[in-house]
Inverse folding.
């Protein structure tokens, strides 16, 4: 059982690491928020693969939807510094 | 029809998705005791639906859920949680002791009804708080 799950775990963990690196390296804050949402959905899928459907549901709802909306609102609320 | 900052495509999509999101949120709340989900997750899904409608149509289209109403919903949810929890000590059990509730049901059904009431309270609170947070962020944007 564990052996059959390992390839999927590797795939989703790799995607999560790639998304995290992309979030930190992207210059545009809106793009960073969008990539962070995909990070949340990949981690939600990873939780679902591990069998923690409850955690996956929470992560998809909070991390993917609500947090992204709040971040976008906060970005429009703040000014961009001189950079 | 007046679109404040949405578009006809966004309006049509949100109209199509809203009832299904609300139905899924209610399903997640009501089946939380024996399947994945619960009050928090269902409340977040319902709040996401409210925020989606507000994003597309503005607050006027958001079912007139003013911040005061959202705050009242939040307090009502906390009141439901504490009230159902205090029913246990009133009927001779512990706090949040569903088995002590004087319902003419089987033991498992009494626990299901009790946890359903608790989860409805939690869902109301989460929906109200998340809507309040979104309203506070948007209001701050309009002020500054």
């Amino acid at each position: 059982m564990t052996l059959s799950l390992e390839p999927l775990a590797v795939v989703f963990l790799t995607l999560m690491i790639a998304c995290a690196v992309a979030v930190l390296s992207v210059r545009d804050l809106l793009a960073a928020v969008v990539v962070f949402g995909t990070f949340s959905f990949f981690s939600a899928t990873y939780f679902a693969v591990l069998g923690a459907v409850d955690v996956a549901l929470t992560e998809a709802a909070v991390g993917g939807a609500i947090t992204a909306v709040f971040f976008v609102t906060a970005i429009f609320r703040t000014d961009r510094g001189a950079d | 029809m007046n679109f404040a900052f949405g578009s006809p495509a966004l309006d049509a999509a949100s109209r199509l998705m809203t009832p299904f999101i609300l139905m899924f949120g209610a399903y997640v709340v009501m089946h939380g005791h024996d399947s994945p989900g619960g009050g928090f997750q269902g409340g977040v899904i319902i709040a996401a639906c409210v925020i989606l409608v507000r994003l597309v149509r503005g607050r006027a289209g958001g079912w007139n859920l003013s911040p005061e109403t959202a705050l009242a919903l939040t307090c009502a949810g906390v009141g439901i949680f504490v009230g159902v929890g205090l029913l246990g000590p009133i009927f001779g059990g512990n706090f949040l002791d569903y088995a002590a509730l004087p319902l003419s049901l089987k033991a498992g059904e009494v626990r299901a009804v009790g946890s359903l009431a608790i989860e409805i309270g939690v869902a109301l609170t989460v929906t109200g708080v998340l809507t309040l947070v979104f309203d506070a962020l948007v209001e701050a944007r309009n002020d500054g």
In short: The interface with chain B takes residues 53-54, 56-58, 61-62, 65-66, 69-70, 73-74, 76-77 of chain A (CB under 8 Å).
